[in-house]
Amino acid sequence: MDSITLFAEGCGAAANTAITDEVALSLYAVFASVPDKRERRGRRYEAALVLTCMLLAKLAGEETMLGIAQWVRHRAKWLGEVFQCDAFPCANTYCNICKQVDAQDLNARLSHFFSTRLAGQDKAPLAVTNEPVVTNGEKADSGQLRHLACDGKELRGTYRYGQKGGAVLGVYDVAAGTLQSLTRIAGKGYEIAALRSWLKTADLSHCLITADALHTQTETCTLVRARNGHYLLIAKENQPQLRDDIRSLFALPPTPRYPREQAQSAGKRHGRQEVRRLCSSTELNDLLAARWQDVAQVFELERTITSRGVTTTSHAYGLTSLTPEQASAKQLLKLIRQHWAIENRCHWRRDATLGEDRCKVMSHRAAATLAALNSAILALAQLLKATNLRSLRRQFSAQPAEALALILQPL
Questions:
Q1: What is the extent of the structural domain holding 70?
Q2: Can you give the pLDDT at residue 17?
Q3: What is the C-alpha to C-alpha distance for residues 32 and 51, in angstroms, rounded to an integer?
């Protein structure tokens, strides 16, 4: 049984096909273009059919392999007419096929597919002053920066017998709401290496990389600049000298020769009042330039939080390769705030709404494939402009034909 033949002509799908707009006309075409590492002999179910069924069931609310298999088999008559097949796989087969899929390649193809379709409706990237960006001594074209937030995530559902499960490093496009890269982390302590491995091959032209303090490393900054990108990082205990230098600077009064720029924002949410103040300066550029590639500003961020009558204040310090002309203190404050979209809009929704941590798949490879499908659901919700993911899944649960049409037809 070859499930690809029914839609190959309409979708333009072909195995091992390069990622191009002409090929990726539909989500089914994306799945069909993913290389299948299984031997051809004895292959009963094509990977495209399996991935389509998994995405369809997950859109309808299923979270586990067993739930997906049962959901599909309960609709075997309907799906059999669509795919021209008389049987569907069991839960173990779904897992085995997921283990043979390159999750990183699958995520790259899905990211390309959604990015091209979200381009016309993205939230506008943070407008950086249209001054020429100096990269390696040369002026790049002026324009806006694409904000890529980087963060690692444990796939907790793969924990077994006291051993920790797999982990992946996500690179999230803040404006588009899509996961641009999904890289497996080899083990505890290898998140830095995973990010550097991705940086060595990525084209970061007109991109801004933000990450948590773990990645505030001189080599990481050098790699970002070598790939024509910019960085914005926080200095904490892992860089005590850098943190102390910045803290000492802002403990002194400003001087006319080296003016400081300030910005403030405030918000109230969940009964908590928060005031954020950022002060930026170029005074340490010469001191830090020897170790930190193309450092252009340092900053101090003060957070004052009032909750239930109790007020607390905390300070954070950081540096960036963006000059004051490219990003003002107000824009830096917004960028730091936007970095947490990878946690709030991506990781949390995958865990809380899509049940990623509750799916106890023992294979790290299969778990990574499920993570790529979960990210595709979030991107699809972004494309449909759905503000409530749970409500969208209830709709597809009641009308699965609508979800199938989204997968099979060009978007």
A1: 5-109+362-408
A2: 35
A3: 9
